Amino acid sequence: MRVLLLGPVDLRDGERSIGLGGTKPKTMLAALMLQPRQVVPIEQLIGHLWDEDPPRSATALVHTYVSTLRRAFASTGRDQVLVTRAPGYSLAVQAGESDLEAFEALVERARRLERAEQHEDAATHYQRALELWRGPALSGIDAPFARAKALALEEERAGAEEGIARCQLVQRHFSEVISRMSGLVARNPVREEAHGLLMRALYESERQADALAVYQNVRRYLDDELGVEPGEMLQQLHNNVLNGSLERVAAPAVVVPVEAVAEAPVVVAVDQYTVPRHLPPDIGDFTGRAGQLDLMLRISEKTAVASRTATATVVVSGFGGAGKSALAVHAAHMLRDRYPDGQLFADLREADPDLGVRDALRRLLNALGVANTDLPDDLTDRVELYRRKVAGRSLVVVLDNVSHEHQVRRLLPGSPHCLVIITSRSRLTGLEGAEFVELGFFDVEASVQMLSRIVGEQRIAAEPEAARSIARLCGGIPLAIRVAAAKLLARPHWPLKVLAGRLSDERRRLDELQAGDLAIRSSLQLNYTELGPLHRRAFHLLTLLDLPDFGAWLAAPLLEISADDAEDVVEHLVDLRLLDVVGVDPLGRVRYRFHDLIRLFGAEQAGGERADEAVLRMMTVWMHLVEIGARKLPRVTLGLRPPGLNTGEVDWRLSADVEENPTGWLKAETAAVVRSIERAHELGVMGSTTTLIVSLLASPFAVRNEFDGWQRILDVALTSARTSGDRGALATVHAGLGQLKYEQDDFAAALEHFGLAREHAEAVSDVHTQAVARAGLGTVHRELGETGPAAEHLVAAAGLAQEAGDADVAAAALYGLGAISRENGDVDDAVESLGRCVGLYREMGDPRGEALALRGLSLCHRARGEQTAAADLSTQAIAILTGAGDALGAAYARQSLAKALVRQGKVAEAAELLDACHEVFAQHRDRFGVALAIRTMGEAALAGGDDVRARELLEDALVRWEQLGLPQWQARTLRDLAAAASADDLWARAVDLAASVGGREAAELRELTAAGWRAHVRQHL
């Protein structure tokens, strides 16, 4: 057995990887392995697993993950590795079972050998230590403690690399040292020892200039990033290399030198040349872009290659205000020493293709010392003169604000020793041989750093939260940050929170982001003016919708164009940097999003644009596609489709996407459709179409427990229905709210909404919605243990369903009545009802309903003591629900199977099933399911004789049932808890509570005691 941390966290038995499930068990394994053979308290483990936001079930989850790890260790034959020791757990690994401990031991041995000057053996041990690494340490774990430890381990890994290099240097293996340390300094640019070893190896290889260049690079990096100079030892090494006084590594043998013959220097006559210094001033507060700057500097190194024939060209692209020009100018200033023949600069903003190139050439040639009187009139002759003047020279040429490739082709010098830096809002991918540097948005930390450099550290440090708020509201756009900083400099008496408050008002934000000649609105206007009528209308409509992200197809109904044309329109907005690409959805389609400031600008420009008809077309298409998706997914809620509505037709390719992968489509589009419904309401475009979409989305939301989006669209629909006074719509919406509240286990609110739905539906004679509301009322009362009202409502629902021809409502009512019969002890009647229910669902072609009815039948067989039949029915239900893609329903079926297994004495097998159930319930935020899983775990522990664990789990479950307000489940849990604790007072509470609810269990409890129930549970294994 081996525990591996130096790479992806893994547990192995030989070469076999032992599956640990999700990231939480792996995180716990790492936390324990970082303190081997020590007790790690449960509170510390909770902190490692959830940082500062643990769930209320954290302790129970820790026990679950401990069980998972113990099963994994047991599969390797080491079932005693993870031991319980108050107040937590300890991992009793042996020597050699951890790659981390092996690494540390090998490095320590290597250091001892190195100190003893046994360099060959030391290098071997360092190498063996490094070979244990399989990738970044603790990868796959996203927890603060793991990230901190991974950084420390990377430092130790780099130290081992340097150890090998020290040994290789003594052995005069200079090329190996150069190769190894070049890679290390590229990955770790602040490690001074690595730079020193690289400089020594280069110096020993007669590459003094390269050794000095290494020092200049690290000095520049430390100054730019940390504001410090290299350490004293590296400075001394640089001085020794510079003056040739560095002591050489002792040679293994004496080499007799051959006297060299000095050659006379060659003098070459050259034309008089004026070195141009034509760059704009550098920005003293330049911030960020370290990665892009490093890439540009590395590209510049290519121009030093003697065999190179092409000019190195870099295109810096990005949105307006990203700091393209600032980066280009900053990089050119940094490269002055590398390009001694000068720097040239030309701004091509708003330049006519020919006149602009002619004027740019005039300015470039003037900078190179050519007078206007000597300039050729012919453009081709002017290009030739420019290229002759720079031939054989080493220059940086910055061409700023380029629009198209053809603008710059004649401005490219022919010298391979020149570097051309081009800035453009477009990517200029048609420029042959160019390399591309893309500028994105700053994150909040970089934005705050930029504010600090401009405004001053003290002012930012005094109000850090306000500074972060300003940074977020500027959206990571450097120009916006600079404008905000300029406004703060102009008003030194303003607290930062004043500007943060003014920027928070979306209506004023663009006005606030203006100071002097700096304005974010002016920057955006440059690209906006390039939009044609169709693209401009698309920009207006899409920004008005304010969607979190969207697919290109959405422009088709908005503009009444084809899906292909819609994609072209949207991609043109991307080309103009008015729209961002944010990724690819599960269907392989590109998703787009507007930056907040661009969205505000677009909505501002759209003032007065008529959007109602376009939005109505879009909502109709949404309705059609949502209906397809809902039809293809498991039906979790009873249908609420308003009658008499036709969804119409849309592009067959859009329908095909939904048909092929309804789950992926809904996952990709849910956020957009929810926001579309909200915006349609805000724009005054509502009606039956929106009500239908809201109704259709109920089941897809329920199957994923996606409560937030469901609540938002129902709130919109309710407001609309109240405003219009449409009682039919009110009935539909209240029924939907009842279903939502039931799924959220908020039973009081569910009863209220189902009751209102019934009233409105009766007022308009909507029999279908009446049936749904009565079925909902019956289901909620049944969950609360109120079987009398439950049966009354369910019988009424069955009658209404028959009148309306609603087979699904009839089946749901029959299921509820069967469940009530089972709870009341009439198991034969329950079996008959649930058997009919299975048949109804099969006739309707509803596999999910069939599976849930089969699970209900399994509970009946379990009540009879027929555990094999119960397990078989639950297994059938699991297969059907898994095939239907209903993970939550399958988890409930697995819970019923686990309970049957407990009754069969298969406690370990049941425990594994329950762990998986608990994880699914927690992921779906299903409070009832979580409580049920924990209670069943407690039952299994009680049956297996582990009273301590049973009490812990059952106490947790009892709190959850009390929070849910479910007395029947409280009584059942109290019964088992009393047995586990041998507590007669708890038993008395269970008896009283069961009597208040009624049903078969009340009579059973009156005939037993806590000790009797405990014996009963264990003898039935």
Sheet having the most strands = 5 strands, parallel
| Helix-and-strand structural type | alpha/beta
Please state the average pLDDT score: 86
> What's the total number of strands?
16
The radius of gyration computed from the alpha-carbon positions, rounded to a whole number of angstroms, is: 37 Å
In DSSP terms, counting alpha (H) and pi (I) runs of 4 or more, how many helices?
48
Strand order of the largest sheet: 8-9-10-7-11
* Helix amount: 55-70%
Q: Specify the overall morphology.
A: flat
Distance between the termini: 34 Å
Q: Extract low-pLDDT stretches.
A: 252-272
Strand content: 5-15%
Keywords for this structure?
1021 residues; 5-stranded parallel beta sheet; single chain; alpha/beta; 48 helices; 3-stranded antiparallel beta sheet
